[in-house]
Amino acid sequence: MKLLTHNMLECRIKGIENRYPFVIEASQVDTVEQDFDPDFLRHMYPRLEWPALKAAADSLGVTGLPTSVSEDMLEDEEFLKVFHHALLEVVLIEGFLVCPESGRKFPVSKGIPNLLLNEDEV
Amino acid sequence: MFSRPSKGEQTRHLFIGNCGPAVGLSEQQCLSLLPKAGRPQLVVPSQQASHIFVTFEDVDAAVAALNHLQRVPCTVTFGRSLVVRHAAVKGPEPMPQYGAFTDAEDCKVPGLSLIKEFVTCAEEQDMLRAVENGDWEALARRRVRHYGYKFEYKSRNVDVNKPIEPMPQAVGMVMDRVRALPGMPALDQLTVNEYPLGVGLSPHIDTHSAFKGAICSLSLAGPAVMEFRRQGQHRALKLPQRSLLIMADEARLAWQHYIPHRKSDVVNSIIIPRAAHRISFTFRQVWGQTCDCPFPESCDSQQGQLPPTRKALQANAPSSGDPSTDGESLQSSSLTSGLLAITSGSDITSCTSEESGPTEPWKSSSADLSTRSQQSDSNQPVEPLEPAVLQQLASKQLLAESPPQSSIEQLVGAQKDSPPRQTTDHIQEERRHKLPANSFSALVPGPALAAADPESSRFGDKLVEVLPDTDRLDSHAAASTLGQQNHEKQAINASVAPMYGTHPDQQQGRALPQTHEQLEGTYVTSMYDAIAPHFSATRFAVWPRVRGFIESLPAGAIVADVGCGNGKYFGVRRDIMVLGSDRSIGLAKVAAQRLDPPLPNEFTTAASLRADVAVADGFVLPMRDSSCDAVLCIAVLHHISSVPRRKAMLEELLRILKPGGQAYVSVWATLQEDPAKTLAKWEALQTPSCCTPSPEPAPQNTEILGSCPVSSLPQSTSEHDESLKHQTLQAASGNIPTSASRDAPEWARPKHLGAPFSNQQTEAATGDGLDVTPDQLQGVRFDEQKQTLVFRRYYHLFEEGELSELVSSIEAAHVAECFYDKSNWCVVMSRTT
Predict the structure, then answer these.
(1) Which residue of A has its CA nearest to B482?
(2) Is the Cβ–Cβ distance between A11 and A20 less than 8 Å?
(3) What parts of the sequence cross the membrane (chain A) (predicted)?
(4) What gap in Å lies between CA B651 and CA B811, rounded to an integer?
C-alpha cells in the first residue's frame, strides 16, 4: 500500500469522531520504483492531506518531507523527488492500519490492507 | 457417420459405390465426376474404401447429382458402373466448415507463410524419435513438452531466467535451418505438442511480451487445418505433414489461430479425415519485455500486465498441469471474436468447455492413461485429493464424513506455500468452530433451489445473437457479507452454525441462506475466493466502454475501482491513481500481483502501476468522503440480492465521489444476447427467506425479493436446459405476485471449473490454486456427468430501465448516461451534491 492510498483512507467504524488518518504500524516496508512524473505530483498535491502524509512518512522512517508545503515548491525538483518517493515508492507490505480513535487494527498483508469491518462496527 | 436413410427418403447426402481410392479413383477424379452445382463436399471414408459420400448444399442439389451420376458414361469411371443412392447422417449434422486454402498467400493474412516439405521424411522420423521419451506434460486433451524454456500455461508466459533442457540434436539441425530464414528471430524455445485424433487447439494469440517476433510451427506425423480469425475475418489453411508454418507481424500479433476440435477437415471441397495423431514443433524466441506493437487490442503489455498466477509462483509446483480454463472464457473467446477476448498463451484447452469437443481421447487408451498417471504421480509432491473422496462427493453430493485433513489442504491448494494470514486464520477458525458442529465436513448440496421467473417467457423473443462479455462481466466479487471475515464474530454466529451445521439429511438435503448477507457470502464472495487464481488467468480483456470512460478522466484523477476483480483496469492509464477494492480476498490478492513490475530482469524497466488494492466491502468503503474523481463499479451490483442493498451500495459509491464526479456502473441484463449460451446455463435460485428452509412457496418474502421458492430444482446444468426452463416456467405461472417482478429473476450461475478427477486432471482441481474451503463448498457442486466441480454464483439480472430507475431514486445522483452494452445495462451517474 502506497502512502497516496493511505492518504485517501479512513476508518469507517460507526459512531466515532476521529477516523483519520490511520496510524501505521509497520513490520515490513519496501521501496518499489515508480516513474517520476512531476505533473502527476502537481495534480495530486491539492488532493492530499499533507499532515497525514508527513506523519505516515515519519512513522515509516521516510525522511526529507517538509512539515508544510506551498504551491511554489511544486516547481522545485529536489522537493518533487522526495515527495514522489514518499507518495508512491514507499510501500507498506506487512503491518497494521490503526484507527486513531478506537485503536482497532486492520491488518496489512502482502501489501493489501484488509478493511472489512465486524458487524457491530457498521 | 453415414447410414441408409429410411426408405424413399431424399437427403442432401449421396452414397456412391464402386468409386473411391480402392478402385483406383483418386479424390480429384471422384470430384470431377460430380456436377459443380450444390457445392459438393466429398467424404472419403478411408484409403481402402470402394465407396465415397458426397454432401451437397441441399436436397435438390443431391437429387440433381444423383440423376446426373446415373448417366455418367462408363468410360469416365474406367468401365465401372456407379451405385448411387441417398445417405443419411447419423447424429447431428456436421458443423459448417470453412474450406481451407492450401497456400498461405491465398489466406491474405499479412505475415503468414507456409513452406511445404520443410523437413525430409528421415528428419521427421529423427525428430519424432528424439522427443518420444521423457517428460511429457499432460494437458487437458493433448500432451506437450518444452525445450530451452518452459512455457507456463497458467501464466501464458515463460520465465526467461530459468532455462531448461536444450533442444535435442536432431531438432537443433532443423532449428538452425529455421533460424536462417530471413527475418527470423533468434529462436531459443521449442514446444512440442501431440494432438490425438479429434483434438484441436483453442483460439489464442501467443502472449506478445513472452515471445519476440515470428513464431514457427512444424507439422509432423500428420497434417492439420489451422484456422485464423480477426475482427470477423476468417481463414483456414491446410498445414501438410512436414510443412513449416510461419506467423509473423500481423498474423502473429493480431490474428487468433486455432485448430478446431474435429475429426475431419474440408480442403478444396474434399472432406479429409485427420491422421491418428499430429505432432507439432513450435519454435519461438522468449522475450519477457513489454510490447509496443500496433495491435493494442490483442497486446498483453498494452492491456495492462497480466499477473503471474499462483501456479507460476508455486516453487514446488508439479511440472504437469492442466491449463483447464473455464468454459465461459472459451466461449467468450470464440464467440466474441475480435471484440475483446484474447485467449493468450499458446494452449489453453478446456476439458470442461461447454462447447464440447470430442470425447476425452486419453481415456480411450489405457496404456496412455497409465503412463500418464505415473508421470503425474512422480511429479506430485503431495498426494492429490483422494479420488474416493471426490467420488463420494460426486455420488452423494455431500461429504458424509470429514475428509482427511490433507484433502482439505489440497483443496486449499497453494495456501500451504504462502499462507495468507487471513485465509488461513479463517480456515482454522472454521475448523475450530464448525468441526464440533459437524458442519465442516458437510458439503451441503448446492441448495436445491428454484426461483420464480415471471419474465422468462419473454426471453425467447428478446434474446439474440452474441455472448455477453463473460470476461469482464463476472470478474468481480461483490461486496457482501459484512464482517464475514471477522472470525471472532462470524464463526460463532449462531444463525450460521446451526443452519450449515445440521446434517443435510435433516433438512431434506437443503440448506438455504437465510439472509442476504449469507446468500451473497456463500454464492458470491466465497465463490470468487475459491476460483480467483483460475479466474484471473482467463479474464483480462479491457471492456471498451469502460476504457473510454477512464480515458475521459482528467490527468491526476483518483479513481476507485469497487469490486476490482483481478484489477484489469489498473494499467489503462499511468497518469491517474486507481484505488482498487474487492470483497474477495482471493481476488484482491490476484489484483495485487499486478502492482509488482512484470518479470524484473535486466531488460525490464517497467515501473509499478499507480494503483493499490484493499479488501473492502462495497457497502462500507474505506475511502474518505468526496475523495475520488470517479468510481468504477463493473459487474458488481448484480451480485447484491435486494433492492435496498443495491441502493445502499450506490449511495456508498456516491459518498466517496466528489460532487460532480462520475461513477460507471454496469450490471448484467435479463436481456441477454444469446439465450442458448447464457440463461440456459443458469440455475434459478431462491433468495433468502427468514423462515425455515422449505420447498413451499413463501409469498411473504416475495414482496421483498420478488422470487419465491417452488419445487426444488434438480442439479441443473446446461445439459438440463429443458428441465430448468420447464421448472422456471412452472414457477412463473404459479406463485409470483406481479408487483414484485422487478426483482425477479434471481440466478446462480454454474461455473464449470477444471477439475475432473482422472489422474492427469486431479492436479487441476488442487494444485491449480483452487481455494476451496468447506464453507465455500456450500455453493460448489460436483457435476457427475462432466466430472467437474461446479461453482455457482448468485446474480440478479437487471431489466431495462431498472438500473437507471434505481439510480434516479437516489437524491444525490443524476443519471448522466444509460445504455445497453453487450448484455449489460450501464449507467454513468454523477454526484449532484
Answers:
(1) A119
(2) yes
(3) none
(4) 9
Task: Note whether B650 and B813 are within 8 A (CB).
Answer: yes
Q: Who's near B762: CB < 8 A, 6+ residues apart?
A: B376, B384, B385, B387, B755
- Please check whether residue B823 is in contact with residue B668, taking contact to mean a CB–CB distance below 8 angstroms: yes
Pairwise CB contact (< 8 Å): A109 & B485:
no
At B76, which amino acid appears? Answer: V
Q: CA-to-CA distance for B48 and B51, rounded, in angstroms?
A: 9
B-chain residues within 8 Å CB-CB of A109?
Answer: 420-422
Cβ–Cβ under 8 Å, residues B670 and B798 = yes
Degrees (nearest 5) of the Cα angle B591, B592, B596?
120
Q: Is B231 touching A (CB cutoff 8 A)? A: no
- Domains of chain A (ranges; CATH) run 3-106 (2.20.25.10)
- Bridge-based pairing of strands B577-582 and B611-615 is parallel
Overall pTM > 0.90: no
| Reduced 3-state DSSP string for B780-832 | EEEECCCCEEEEEEEEECECCCHHHHHHHCCCCEEEEEEEEECCEEEEEEEEC
Hey, what amino acid is at B469? D
- Count interface pairs A-B at CB distance under 8 A: 123
Residue linked to cell 445417405? B87
Q: Are B269 and B39 in contact (CB under 8 A)?
A: yes
Phi then psi dihedrals of residue B775, to 5 deg: -60, -35
Q: Residue B126's closest CA among B201, B218, B195? A: B218
Please state the ipTM of this predicted complex.
0.97
Contact B624 A9 (CB under 8 A): yes
Low-confidence ranges of chain B (pLDDT < 50): 305-510, 537-538, 599-606, 677, 687-745, 750-777
CA distance B197 to B274: 7
